[in-house]
Amino acid sequence: MIFNDKLQCHLKSQKSLTSGGAASQDFAARADRRPIGVHHGRRAPDCPTLNMLPQKLVLIALAIGACSAMYSKKDDVVELTEANFQSKVLASDDIWIVEFYAPWCGHCKNLVPEYKKAATALKGVAKVGAVDMTQHQSVGQPYNVQGFPTLKIFGADKKKPTDFNGQRTAQAIADALLAEAKKAVSARLGGKGSSGSSSSGSGSGSGKRGGGNEVVELTDSNFEELVLNSKDMWLVEFYAPWCGHCKNLEPHWKAAASELKGKVKLGALDATVHTNIANKFGIRGFPTIKYFAPGSDISDAAEYDGGRTTSDIVSWASSKAQENLPPPEVLEGINQEVVEGACKDKQLCIFAFLPHILDCQSECRNKHIAVLKELSEKFKKNLWGWIWVEGGSQPGLEEAFEVGGFGYPAMTALNSRKMKFSVLKGSFSKDGIHEFLRDLSFGKGRTASLRSTEFPKVVKTEKWDGKDGVLPAEDDIDLSDIDLDKTEL
C-alpha cells in the first residue's frame, strides 16, 4: 500500500464516519450495529482453545477445521497462514486487525458476517485478516490466544499488538481501526519514525513510499549518485502509485530490503514522477525491477527474473551477492587467533601445508599460493576459510590432521562445527586440489573425527617476509692448535 494513499484514505474515512454526512449513512447501511455474542448486556464467553478441549474433541475439531474454513479468497478478509503471516502482517506498514478463530466455534461463526462487512468497508484503509487456529496454531502461539474468537490489532508497532475488546460489529471494528490509523499518522507526522519526506521533488508526493523501512527512495536527482558506479549491489523497482501489482509487491519489497540489509540495497523509483531516469531505461510496464551490479552503468542494468515474494527476492539477490563476492583471502596461519578467525562460522576451512622455505624457495612457494588463490576464487560461493602454514611449523595442526613429518605439500579440510576433517590423497596440483574440493562441496570424500573436541593448537610464528630462505652461517673453527699429524688411538 502506498503511504500517501493510505494517509488520504485514513483522513477521508475518519471524516466521513464522524461528520454524520451521507458517507456516514452509507457506511452505517453497510455495517449492522447489532452486537454479536452479547447476552443481557455482556458478551458471551469465548469458545475454548484447542488445548482446553479433550483429546477426542480436538481430533474432531481439526477434522472439521480442515474442510470448513469460514473465509474464502472471494472475501475481503485476508486468509493468514504460517507461510504468509510474517510478510503480510508483521513486515507490512498497513494497520491490521486479525481474528484467531476455529471453524467449529459458534461465536466465530456469528462474527463472520460482521467481520466481512468491516473488511469491505475498510478496503483501502486498513487490512482485515483471519487465522484458522486448527490449521495454523503456531501463528497464534506468540500472542497467548486463550479463546475463540480472539481479535488483535497490529498497529504501527507490530511487535506490540493490542486486544480488540469492543463490540463485535462492523462499525465497532471499523472505529477501532480508524482510531489506530489516526494514531499511526499522528506519530509519523510528529517525527516518530521516518515519513518518507526526503527531498525528492516528487510534485504531489502521492508516489512516495512509506518510511520506517530499508527501501531507498530514488529520484532523478539522486539515482546516478546512489546507484550508478556504486560499490554496492542494487535492485531497483520502477513503480506507479496507481499500479495494483506495485501495491501488492510493496510489503514484500520492504521485508526483503530488511533481510538483505548490508548485502544488497533495494530502491524504489516513482516512474510517473521521475520520468528522466525511467525513460533512460525504457520503462513501459509496472512494476519493472532491474539489477545493478557494483560499478554498473546505465547499459549494464540487468532484468530481474525472479518471483515477487519476500523469499523469492531474498533468494535471487543472495545468489547475485555470492556471485559478486570478492575471493576469500588466503591467510598465513601465524597464530591461534588468525586460524580460528578464518574458520569461525565457516562450513569448511581449507589448510595447506607448504614445504619449508629452504626446500621450496620464494618462487616455488608463491606458485603454490597462487594455486590456492585461484581455487579460492572458483569456490568462493561456498564461503570457506583458507589457511596456509609452513610444513613443520605447526605440530599441533599436523598431529590433529594426521599429516606432516614428510611429504609436503599437503592439504586438509576441517569442519570446525563437527570437528571432522578430510585429507587430500591425490596430487597437490590445481587439478588434484580442484577434484578434492569439488567432492567436498558435494558432500563426498572420506572424513575422520579429530581426537580432541577442542580446536587444534596453533603456535605463534613469524610472518613470512616473501624472501628466499637462507641457510644459517656456520661457525668458523680455528684449526691452528690441532696437530693433524698425531692420531690418538
From TrEMBL:
The subcellular localization recorded is: Endoplasmic reticulum lumen
Q: What is its main location?
A: endoplasmic reticulum
State the UniProt keywords alphabetically: Disulfide bond, Endoplasmic reticulum, Isomerase, Redox-active center, Repeat, Signal
Organism's domain of life?
Answer: Eukaryota
Name any GO cellular component annotation. endoplasmic reticulum lumen
Q: Where is this region: Disordered?
A: 188-215
In short, the EC number is 5.3.4.1
- Ranges for domain Thioredoxin come to 69-177, 178-322
Task: Quickly give the catalysed reaction.
Answer: Catalyzes the rearrangement of -S-S- bonds in proteins
Q: CDD domains annotated for this entry?
A: P5_C, PDI_a_P5
> InterPro entries from the entry?
PDI_thioredoxin-like_dom, Thioredox_PDIA6_C, Thioredoxin-like_sf, Thioredoxin_CS, Thioredoxin_domain
Q: Which Gene3D superfamilies match?
A: Glutaredoxin
Q: Which PANTHER family does the protein's record reference?
A: PROTEIN DISULFIDE-ISOMERASE A6 (PTHR45815:SF3)
Family statement drawn from the similarity comment of this UniProt entry:
Belongs to the protein disulfide isomerase family.
Spell out the protein name for this chain: Protein disulfide-isomerase A6 homolog
